[in-house]
Design goal:
single chain, about 325 residues, alpha/beta, six-stranded mixed beta sheet, four-stranded antiparallel beta sheet, binds adenosine-5'-triphosphate, binds magnesium ion
Length: about 325
């Protein structure tokens, strides 16, 4: 454009062109270059979008291994009893994870599951939430096989505080509200209080509006756990599952949150997975797992009296503490 204008300006000074010609050339050039420029921009945009569209279609073509049966009825929850019937499960056929495992959680009971790392405790939670279907056996909630009811209704009645919480890159407030999108602001604030988050939130410049970063990377492990607990408190489901829910907290916060959880789980069925045995001594029943099977179960006192697996775990932890 500069070259053309330079040539035209020379012709004008030589007197072979008029000022009008100069303006005409300028106008032509602009009309030509602006659309050309725009075309380049659109081309780049389209290329970028095509890459995204390809990814999206690849994702849409994936189908989930766990499917609703046709016209699946909703789960009818009455009391919230859970029963695992001879459940076997493997992620890969050559490595069984859960082996012919049966146990029951009666309505309103608090059952703790303990055992070595990798025993398959979190896998039981995934099976209960129906992220996977058992390869054999069945899981019943209030007498209904969970593979025969709609997944939505099943997940509605179970609240999980998972071992590794995933947060959305949104404000803390919205992340908690995710537990129950219909909750009012006052209810969310109440949940924040019960999960002992208010003093942490008060320290933040943006308060509850602080954005937590991708997957929640701007929060500490304990803070993330408390957000997950607040979520579950807000959901108030009939069945509660805690998978190492307080493992990243200091002893003092842990104690106060446990008492809050105690209050909330009053009258609800709950399943608690814990490594720190001191947090589950009050459970109605303790199930000890090893390599995908149950090795013993009973109350804290009964298991101690047996002087077997649980007794070993307990004395080992006591020794560490002293
Ligand atoms: N998605 C997966 N694919 C393949 N193997 C898996 C998968 N998830 C877990 N496993 C394996 O299954 C076994 C049981 O895992 P699980 O998470 O249930 O253990 P856990 O008892 O919860 O242990 P921890 O106390 O460390 O949380 C582990 O050995 C693990 O390697
Ligand atoms: Mg686990």
């Amino acid at each position: 454009m500069t070259a053309m204008m330079w040539l035209a300006a020379q012709r004008v000074t030589e007197g072979t062109m008029t000022i009008g010609d100069f303006v005409l050339i300028n106008a032509f050039m602009m009309q030509l270059f602006i659309p050309l420029n725009f075309l380049g921009f659109v081309y780049r945009e389209i290329k970028g979008s095509m890459a995204n569209i390809e990814n999206m279609f690849a994702l849409m073509e994936l189908s989930s291994g766990v499917k609703n049966i046709d016209n699946a009825p909703d789960l009818e929850i009455t009391k919230g009893a859970i029963s695992f019937n001879k459940v076997s499960f493997h992620y890969r056929p050559d490595r069984p994870i859960v082996k012919d495992l049966s146990f029951e959680i009666r309505a309103g009971e608090k059952v703790a599951i303990v055992g070595a790392s990798g025993a398959g405790k979190s896998t039981l939670v995934k099976l209960l939430f129906r992220f996977y279907d058992p390869s054999q056996g069945s899981i019943l909630v209030d007498g209904q096989d969970i593979s025969q009811v709609s997944q939505h209704s099943l997940r509605q009645v179970i609240g999980i505080v998972p071992q590794d919480t995933v947060l959305f890159n949104q404000s803390i407030f919205e992340n908690i509200r995710y537990g129950n999108p219909e909750a009012s602001d006052a209810e969310v604030l109440q949940a924040i209080k019960l999960a002992h988050l208010q003093s942490f939130i008060a320290e933040l410049p943006d308060g509850a509006e602080t954005v937590v970063g991708e997957r929640g990377l701007k929060l500490s492990g304990g803070e993330k756990q408390r957000v997950a607990i607040a979520r579950t408190i807000l959901k108030r489901p009939p069945i509660l599952v805690f998978d190492e829910a307080t493992s990243s907290l200091d002893s003092k916060s842990e104690r106060s949150i446990l008492s809050a959880l105690e209050e909330i789980s009053q009258g609800h069925t709950s399943m608690v997975i814990a490594h720190r045995l001191s947090t589950i001594v009050d459970a109605d029943r303790i199930v000890v797992m090893d390599h995908g099977s149950i090795v013993e179960q009973g109350s804290h006192q009964a298991l101690l009296a047996k002087k077997a697996r649980y007794f070993e775990l307990w004395t080992a932890q006591l020794r560490d503490q002293t």
